[in-house]
Amino acid sequence: MTDASLLLLQYGRKMHAAGLTTGSGGNLSMRVQDGVLITPSAMDYGDMGVDDLVLVDLDGRVLQGRRKPSSELDFHLCLYGARPDIRAVVHTHSPWVTTLACLGWPLPAVHYLVGFAERSEVPVAPYATFGTSELAEQVVRGMVGGKALILANHGLVAIGTDLKEAFNIAEEIEFVAGVYLRAKAVGEPVILDEKAMGPVLTKFRSYRNPL
Ligand SMILES: [Zn+2]
What residue stretches are annotated with the Class II aldolase/adducin N-terminal domain (predicted)? Predict the structure, then answer.
């Protein structure tokens, strides 16, 4: 699991460096041959080493690692169960998206890059306590038909066929959320309609799945 561990650790640090989370907030996971590799609970990314990552099976049993897996393990596993097309999950508390999450506002197509989420609006899943099966259910339900979801009063979840894709989605959705809230602060932003977003979504899907 060494290569996968290094990659996960690298993206954890990248997530922190990019300002997509603070301290030990947020978490990442990826599918590996034996199960799911996930970041540990309550540990700063700067202090994390490969030995701190946890390998679990699809039922959440720890196969390798001395730490406790992330408290959001449940929604990571439920997403892998519901979406066989994905192999990575990134969960952030990025500031702009979290501001939207606290307003209970979905993110509309204020900029075409919202298409990274493979939907023309990123919806908000109802609030549920972190680490609960109720939250996991809301995450799976809200993710149907897209690759990003805002969690009310909490943050963002992004999924992808690999860590790079899930991370890029989280980063671009944070960018669009920032643009939207800054535009809202000075006026009424122009939102792209379905006619404008249709070709964008087609391009994003074919770009990622060239066959
Ligand atoms: Zn969280």
Answer: 6-181
72 tagged catalytic: yes
Ligand 1 mean position, distance from CA 183 (Å): 26
Q: What is d(CA 27, CA 89) in angstroms, rounded to the nearest whole number?
A: 8
- pLDDT tens profile 29-78: 999 998 999 999 989 988 999 999 999 999 999 999 999 999 999 999 99
Contact between residue 54 and residue 38 where contact means Cβ atoms under 8 Å apart: yes
The helix/strand/coil state of 205 is helix
Cα(88) to centroid of ligand 1, in Å? Answer: 16
- Out of 72, 165, 171, 174, the active site residue is 72
Q: 104: pLDDT confidence band, cut at 50, 70 and 90?
A: very high
Distance 94 CA to ligand 1 centre (A): 10
How far, in Å, from the CA of 92 to the mean position of ligand 1? 6
pLDDT in tens, 70-93: 999 999 999 999 999 999 999 999
Domains in the chain with CATH codes: 2-208 (3.40.225.10)
